[in-house]
Specification:
By secondary structure, the protein is an alpha/beta fold. Helices cover about 50% and strands about 15% of the residues. It is globular, with a radius of gyration of 20 Å.
Length: about 325
């Protein structure tokens, strides 16, 4: 995949990143390492993790994997959500939960509710920031992270001048290259409107039925690094998107070439449509799906590296999806 400049940050990476939320959480060690290796072999160099991912251990496995490769990778991590320490019985319970999901995917919602109790969100204090960055650097086996995001931050963090100044000092000290905000679109919009220092990277959820980042990012693609997460938007949105694209493929109002391209709607065609709608001419620099299966990684890479859709076709798909929203 071709690398691009990430705004004026000095960082470069392909537009497809690897979301590490499932590492040592939903996925075990062996599966996680296979996914990381496949992502690397396919050219992915942007890795998005967090202090809380994998119950506090995702960073460690990523750091282990990136040994000897660190200078080729862009690492983004986050602070603000604390994971409960994992005792022996909790680690066994995680392994049992993974096995249950393999045979009963419908149990996911029940397990997610239980997992949510293992985290403490909204931890935006200077002591948490300082402890988190030191733990992240240690786990990741690096002396500097490329981007440090505030994780799932509310708008109130934009009033915490002492915390923002502390993040700025981490940048000055060389422990963090870029300070950023990971939040819902309304919070990101407020930060962009205020040009809140020292924030120079923005991460927000962005899927084909909800493209709030497009307006913000297109006008400030040089000022900020723009990262879109959850591009597929969950099971319900995936189903709606597939239905909309199938309806397009069957429409006589569409030109024959685009109907043919959408005809099969296999995984790689679906990935192409979704990721191209999010990335093409929107100002988004990197999109980070969580993808632990090699075939999904391959489909996403092919979509970003060699899209079958031209700009006019993506505009048509975008309009159809907007009408279906």
């Amino acid at each position: 995949m071709q690398e691009i400049e990430l705004g004026n940050s000095g960082l470069r990476a392909p537009q497809l990143g690897f979301g590490c939320s499932a590492i040592l959480g939903r996925s075990g060690r062996a599966e996680s390492l296979r996914a990381l290796a496949a992502a690397w072999d396919y050219g992915i160099r942007f890795f998005d993790t967090a202090r809380s991912y994998g119950y506090g251990e995702s960073e460690a496995l990523l750091g282990e994997f990136l040994e000897g490769r660190r200078d080729q990778a862009v690492i983004a991590t986050k602070f603000g959500i604390l994971a409960a320490s994992q005792s022996g019985w909790k680690r066994v319970a995680k392994a049992v939960a993974r096995q249950l999901l393999a045979v009963a995917p419908g149990a996911r919602s029940v397990l997610q509710k239980g997992a949510a109790s293992q985290f403490s969100s909204g931890q935006f204090t200077i002591p948490v920031l300082q402890q988190s960055i030191e733990q992240s650097l240690c786990k990741l086996k690096t002396d500097c992270v490329d981007i440090l995001f505030m994780h799932a931050a509310p708008s109130s963090v934009l009033e915490q001048d002492d915390l923002l100044e502390a993040m700025g000092r981490l940048v000055e000290a060389g422990k963090v290259k870029i300070a950023g905000l990971s939040a819902e679109p309304d919070v990101v919009a407020l930060a962009v409107e205020r040009r809140t220092p020292p924030l120079r990277a923005m991460q927000l959820p962005c899927n084909v039925f909800n493209l709030p980042a497009a307006g913000m990012a297109s006008g400030s693609a040089a000022r900020y690094v723009w990262v879109a997460n959850h591009p597929y938007g969950g099971v319900v949105r995936v189903q709606r998107c597939r239905e909309t694209l199938r309806a397009m493929a069957a429409s006589c109002e569409l030109d024959a070439i685009l109907r043919e391209k959408l005809g099969t709607l296999e995984d790689r065609v679906f990935a192409d449509a979704v990721l191209s709608v999010i990335l093409r001419d929107t100002g988004i620099h990197v999109v980070i799906p969580a993808m632990m299966r090699v075939e999904h990684i391959r489909a996403n890479v092919e979509a970003v590296a060699n899209s079958r859709f031209d700009d006019r076709e993506i505009a048509q798909i975008r309009r159809a999806l907007a009408d279906a929203a």
